[in-house]
Design goal:
alpha/beta, Rossmann fold, six-stranded mixed sheet, TIM Barrel, 2 domains, globular, 37% helix, single chain
């Protein structure tokens, strides 16, 4: 240990005294080899090589209240107190196929405990792509990204970035894995879809920059933000959670489309870029993920794009990487390629031991490790975590931060502006006779809250309107019964929930839904299909009389759909994507307000 400290001290002193100070980038992070913050110097002097490697590991935790003798708590304690990992990521807890989000106070209390256990403050990450509501209840329910572009709401993206930073820091999260910089130009993409801002690289770039500006706008609530998934996951037809995705486009197309939002993010001072577990033959002839390609991470991202921030892998337990290499080999290859942070290896010890062995054998250099450690520790200082600052959060302050009325109103405005009417062959919208219109909500089942806000908002306006909520697990007899109940309706509105989800493999409707919907469309009663999620859904049901989309299944989007159906808001959205055979990018019928909202709503 004494020898290790001496070596680190000598190396850092050389960096501080001998190397010319590198000019900080727009957000203050210096390139490795430049000036090192004294706090970073102090931290590294206390670390063994094993500790340094552990600083490059981020492991998952559930943000829940738990007993200190519970199995999960002991596991998290082991990560932090024993292994000295550099960070944790708050993930959703899957129970019986349903993702359960964290509660703000319980999550913050657990994160405070973890920070107290850690000798060096932890990076705490979360996939807050649509605000903190992605992982935490009682926070502002922002719609998915595509809703912002549909409503041309660039200011809304900036507001979301700022509010996400504010909510995140109040609960102990300091690293946000957003914005999504993928250009979704493949309608069959099973995993990006509405998470993207759309198919136009210029538009996506603008929204990426707007989000970053918002997230960096308040020094009191500064967070690291992350553009993902490099070099661009939008034109793939494979979910990288399930296998190795491929981007088959040529170099020129990738340069002008996929890379543009990442260039924009770098110019705006993005703190980190997340890699994609996908093959990109135009830049890497070997059939390997970008995550482990030095040509893509070091040559393209570090070299050509001149990115000097943190490169973080996508989750290393995803099959796009894990099916090719074991945990240790994945970790070594990712660091060889240029990654700094290893996100969610299946077993932290295996990743640490493999990297240590690679350094011992000479496969990885000590300098390669030190470069990444300096980036990680410098980020912690930049976040105000040095010398214990901002390490813990004030639990009493959470209630006055999360889910503010102003933010809730702004999120609802985004959802309202996004509603897009793609076609309406019989002028069915807004609804002329709500009491005789049948509404059928086709939920995804595993997401228990779907349909609740929709039904609630309809009941406020038309208590006698026939409403049926379906689940894909229902029997054929249940579906037959639901179809029979529409016999006396003047028209039918089908609200179809189809969202992207890891390990699903597609964005199609499940179970009996397709046959059921086609049966309704084939009947004599006109059908309006409303997609709460995947905007491309109409390709499979092109005979629907009318089609509209909200790009999102969130409660805000449910409310927006109901207001649009009843004519209480103008329908002004435009498609941020092309729907092959149905509609072009930018299409959208414009409908003015036709009636006032009921009093009290």
């Amino acid at each position: 240990m004494i020898l290790r400290q001496t070596a680190v001290a000598a190396a850092l002193c050389a960096m501080l005294a001998g190397a010319p100070a590198e000019k900080p980038n727009k957000k203050g992070a210096a390139k490795p080899g430049g000036q090192v913050n004294p706090i970073v110097h102090t931290w590294m002097r206390s670390m063994s090589l094993r500790d340094e490697v552990a600083q490059l590991i981020v492991m998952p935790i559930y943000g829940e209240a738990m007993h200190t003798r519970s199995a999960n708590y002991r596991k998290y304690q082991h990560f932090v107190r024993d292994l000295h990992v550099g960070g944790v990521i708050v993930t959703g807890h899957v129970t019986n196929g349903t993702v359960r989000n964290a509660e703000p106070y319980a999550m913050a209390a657990l994160l405070n405990r973890m920070q107290k256990l850690s000798r060096v403050p932890l990076l705490v990450a979360a996939d807050f792509e649509r605000g903190a509501s992605m992982r935490v209840n009682s926070t502002t329910n922002w719609p998915y990204n595509m809703a912002f572009t549909a409503g041309k709401d660039l200011a809304g993206a900036t507001f979301e970035g700022a509010e996400t930073a504010r909510e995140a820091r109040s609960m102990g999260v300091n690293w946000v894995f957003a914005p999504v910089a993928d250009v979704n130009n493949n309608p069959d993409n099973p995993i990006i879809n509405i998470r993207s801002y759309g198919e136009n690289p210029v538009e996506v770039s603008n929204y990426v920059q707007a989000y970053i500006a918002g997230a960096h706008s308040d020094a009191r609530n500064i967070v690291m933000v992350t553009a993902k998934h490099f070099p661009g996951h939008g034109d793939t037809a494979q979910d990288s959670h399930m296998g190795l995705a491929r981007l088959e486009a040529d170099r020129k197309r990738i340069e002008t489309v996929e890379l543009e939002p990442f260039r924009a993010g770098i110019a705006a001072g993005v703190d980190a870029i997340m890699t994609a577990h996908m093959a990109v033959p135009a830049f890497e002839p070997e059939n390997v993920p970008a995550t482990v390609s030095s040509k893509i991470l070091t040559g393209l991202l570090r070299g050509q794009l001149a990115f000097h921030g943190i490169i973080v892998t996508d989750a290393m337990d995803m099959q796009g990487l894990a099916s090719l290499y074991n945990t240790g080999e994945s970790a070594v290859r990712a660091l060889e390629a240029g990654s700094d942070v290893l996100l969610m290896p299946r077993k932290a010890e295996d990743a640490i031991n493999a990297v240590l062995a690679a350094v011992e054998s000479g496969r990885l250099s000590r300098q390669r490790i030190d470069d990444s450690v300096v980036r990680v520790l410098s980020a912690k200082v930049k976040l105000g975590l040095g010398q214990g600052q901002r390490k813990l959060v004030n639990l009493e302050g959470i209630g006055d931060t999360v889910g503010s009325p102003e933010a809730d109103d702004r999120a609802q405005m985004v959802a309202d502006r996004a509603v897009t009417l793609v076609k309406d062959q019989k002028d069915q919208l807004p609804l002329r006779h709500p009491e005789s219109t049948c509404l059928i909500a086709m939920t995804e089942g595993r997401r228990g809250q779907q349909g609740n806000r929709l039904v609630e908002e309809v009941r406020k306006r038309a208590p006698k309107m026939p409403v049926t909520v379906l689940d894909p697990g229902m029997s054929k007899a249940d579906f037959d019964d639901a179809a029979q109940k529409t016999a006396d309706c003047s028209q039918i509105v089908v609200a179809a929930y189809v969202t992207v989800s890891a390990y699903r493999g597609n964005v199609a409707m499940a179970g009996e839904y397709p046959d059921f919907l086609n049966g309704l469309i084939a009947g004599k009663i006109p059908v309006t299909l409303a997609a709460l999620g995947n905007p491309y859904l109409v390709r499979s049901f092109s005979n629907a009389t009318a089609y509209m989309t909200t790009y999102s299944p969130t409660p805000t989007s449910e409310a927006a759909l109901v207001k649009a159906l009843f004519g209480e808001i103008a329908i002004t959205g435009h498609l941020p994507v092309t729907i092959p055979g149905v509609a072009k990018y930018g299409d959208g019928l414009q409908i003015p307000v036709t009636r006032a909202a009921p009093k009290g709503l």
